[in-house]
Amino acid sequence: MTSTNRNTSLITLTIAVILWFMPTFRETLDYPVFFLLFGYTLFFWIAQASSWNTFTGFSGYFSFGQGAFFGAGVYAVAVLAVKRDWPLLLTFLVGGIVAAAIGLIIGVVVFRLRELRGEIFALMTLAVAFVMASIARVSPTIDGGQGAPVNNVPLPDFLGDFPTMIFRLGLIVATLAVIAAQWVQRSRLGWGLFSIRDDEDVAETLGVPTFRYKITALLITAFIAGLSGAIHSLQIGYVTIEDVFSIRVPLFVILMSILGGTKHWMGPVVGAIVVVTLNDRLNRAGFQEISDFITGGLLILMIVAVKEGLYLRMRTRPARTAIGFVAGLAIGLALGALDESLITLLAYGLGIAVLAVMLPLSWFARGRSAEAEAKVASHG
Question: Where in the chain are the domains?
Fold first, then answer.
């Protein structure tokens, strides 16, 4: 691990340690328990988006397999903890391992066949989730079409009450996902994946072990997605095939990663923060029916106006980002957002900051050149 990687990981761990103690001071700071549940939701999507991007964003192999890996983790808890009385924490680990095993099978079959690339690979990974849903539906051992209640599973006492437990478990997995993405991006594995994304045939000619690198990245993605799904089963409460194996999880993960930017580990983190915050506030404001429509519209605008993703655009325009965020906070305060929640105020800040970086550069003072931005995008 390089010194840059080490320093970045230490910063990530430091932030995680600070957040770990957030539930401890809930009564002292007198903030609502909803903050912990919102924090968990944020951690869940950061873990899912970061893990997806570790394989797809870095290698260029577009995958819809996140739903299958997530579902494997969810049903590991539903079957083992609920029906077999296994210790809860052990079922989390099993969920990650089962998901990784599914990823290994997909990789061994698909990566050996050079014809299965591009759209064919994406469709095959999407089909895996449908196959798993069918197996779960006809198997009484797994589901049998009846669903499974997970809200009655005994919880370990040392993890505290449910909001504290789910917050900290989500934080652990999100931290693991982000540090894994940091390590991959700066390692030989990462550079190999980038070369595969650029031109796999040339990479093989230059001696890059493409098969091994793709398998390794896919295993990391699958394990973290399954581990995160296993923990999320507790938040779901009642597991059903329709909810678990729906297209919602992979689509939201793709949305967050593309929105934030797939060429840097920080992209999915930024994308998850923006999407989760804005979506949560839209839902609480009574716009549940159109929140997905608004979020999808934002993605379309991003693809057209900010192809490199929010993170790299913000990184190359720090002044504009800061001014937009502060202006958003000021607007939120003027409209009484703080009376509702700090999260509402954050949504104003993020929303205006996103709009600010999406505006044409000519509207502002001259910034970095296109060549400089391309250099940042390629080297992270």
Answer: 1-246, 264-380
